[in-house]
Specification:
about 100 residues, mainly alpha, 4 helices
Length: about 100
């Protein structure tokens, strides 16, 4: 049967593979930032489509301009998502400063 580790990993929402509890804080911070980025990307992509599709359907928007705007919209969504790669875990700062309580 084992020690129940597999059952605990399956039942938990978050599994720590290090002994540092700051990893849980970092995971929560990163997940919140990721969700905010997803919502922002969805808003801007939806706003573009709501604005551009009626203009294109009415023939008021040049297809070349519409295609370029769609490509630019995709580039903006990707570059907004790439901002997540600059995420700095607080746990690394905590370890680097040395949280020793001795004077």
């Amino acid at each position: 049967m084992g020690t129940g580790t597999d059952a605990a990993i399956e039942a938990g929402d978050l599994t720590l593979v290090r002994g540092d509890l700051m990893a849980a804080v970092d995971a929560i911070r990163l997940s919140r930032r990721t969700l905010a980025t997803i919502k922002a990307n969805l808003f801007w992509a939806l706003a573009y489509n709501v604005a551009a599709l009626p203009l294109a359907a009415a023939g008021l928007l040049n297809p070349m301009i519409a295609g370029a705007a769609m490509a630019l919209s995709s580039c903006l969504v990707v570059s907004n998502s790439l901002r997540l790669t600059r995420f700095q875990p607080a746990g690394l700062d905590h370890q680097a400063t040395g949280s020793s309580s001795t004077p």
